[in-house]
Fold:
Amino acid sequence: MSDSQAATAGNARSKGAIGRLLSFAGPRRALTYIGCALSAASMLISFGPYICIWLVARDLIAVAPDWSAATGIAVYGWWAFGLSVASILLYFAGLMCTHLAAFRCASNMRKRTTDHLMHASLGYFDTHASGALRRVVDGCAAETEGLLAHKLPDTAGSVAMILGMLALFFVFDWRLGLACLASVVVSLGCIFYMMGGRGMDFMTRYMESLVKMNKTGTEYVRGIPVVKVFQQTVYSFKAFHDAIDEFTRLAQDYAVKWCQTPQSLSLTVINGVAIFLVPAAILLAPGEGDFARFVANFAFYAIFAAVIPTAVTRVMFMSEAFQSAADAVSRVEEVLAAPVISAPAHPCTPQGNAIRFADVSFTYEGAEAPALYRVSFDVPAGATVALVGPSGGGKTTAASLVPRFWDVSSGRVELGGVDVRDMDPHDLMDRVAFVFQANRPFKQTVLENVRAARPEATRDEVLAALEAAQCSDILEKLPQGVDTLVGTGGAHLSGGEVQRLMIARAILKDAPIVVLDEATAFADPENEVKIQAAFRRLARGRDGEPRTVLMIAHRLSTVRNADKIVVLDAGRVVEQGTHDELLRAGGLYARMWADYERSVSWRITSAQEVE
Structure:
């Protein structure tokens, strides 16, 4: 594609982006059109003082040297003052309109993306970094706000300015007008060269680089403790360093290699209109019959030349703003296209709490191999079924399909005989409680962290859940007990203690189905004992009835007494049965158990013992 074709395509995308952007403003988009019209009118009226100056110059030159004979110039002064005030008031009114539309547009954009993310499948957040999403939700809205509030009305004014300028170029003396127009043509040619073709591609890569830096920067901040422990620098965090280096190289290449020459030429020509105007005047002056009028015309064009750099500079900023808007709207639309957990038109109610995987296959977006392939197993109501297997075998993926973090590619995940996709999402979430491998408590009190599972729960119910989750020792050491703030500025808890708080949350929810994802991963031996006791309480439920439990574990000691163990390897079910049955089968589970027994008997040997 040539540069001209790329520029045309880019302009089409930009125009389309403005329309898509204004759709977020709703009824207030009309204010944008009104504001742009007022801005254009303001710019046309602003030419009035220049015409008044020309009239003053014309009258003074006509009566020279008897300046007192020019009795009408005071009237021109008042007209210039009145037109200037009118231009300012119209521009102010236009900005008021566009700001009202811009604020509503940015607000709706943030609300719609946030609302969509609230309904997006939870698995979407595993593949999209929080830093990148924050950049889209907040940063893109802020960029478009500036475009609608200032750049768009200024663009309308710039278009009106250029059209009015072209008209004025040929009103007084078309020959001098052509001389002024030459500088505009050269400057605009340079701008379109910079913004078209590779310039459009640069803006896309520039915005991608910003998102990448934001994402890797967030990861770097979270990894600072590791960097400091090993006495490393930012260069050790290769992803962040590479993102900064890529952005620096991209900006330098564009500014130096691509824009340096055309930008220098554009600025020189547009700020040096005299390069074209003065030689033209010198060549034309000898043949003029009415020399006084010619001098007055020359004075007008010399004064009016000050407007030309402003008009052309606005065009340059306008093109850049449109490119940014096109990219911002595209990124927002990508977020709005994220898969959501949709409610069926006629939701079904499950009969019981049994879980069934029926020939389930699932492939992550962009992956070539399926994460699960034709997986089938049952979790009877009230039973505890464990998923074990090598890392990357598909255990977490399988568990995440039950609450619809993702939807299956093929097959069915059933709850109480009903496909989870045919259930109301709220009903499904009410029936399932989660305890994840890694948990981050909210920056709230212990009470509010646990109460998040059931906001209407009383204080006594929260305390009962904490006691059932073996959290009494945690509360005793906290300065304000259950009312102690957790997190930054408050108390800090160990991984095992946080895990017990999350179990208390699950106990308070009292859901009939519990999904546990490697819940003892970060627990020390003392915490693990208490977590196991909390698990037993969680599996019983508040009414004493056994809950349906689907658990993922790497520590095989935690699943030895499970009602059934399903062994997953490379996304397939390779074995299933009880602990004893799988040991007798002598398959993958038996080998994993043998490795586990060797690991628990491992001990450090002293140098003397080795000798």
User: Anything to note?
Assistant: The chain has 24 helices and ten strands. The chain has a mean pLDDT of 78. The CA atoms of residues 203 and 324 lie 7 Å apart. Residues 73-119 form the longest helix (47 residues).
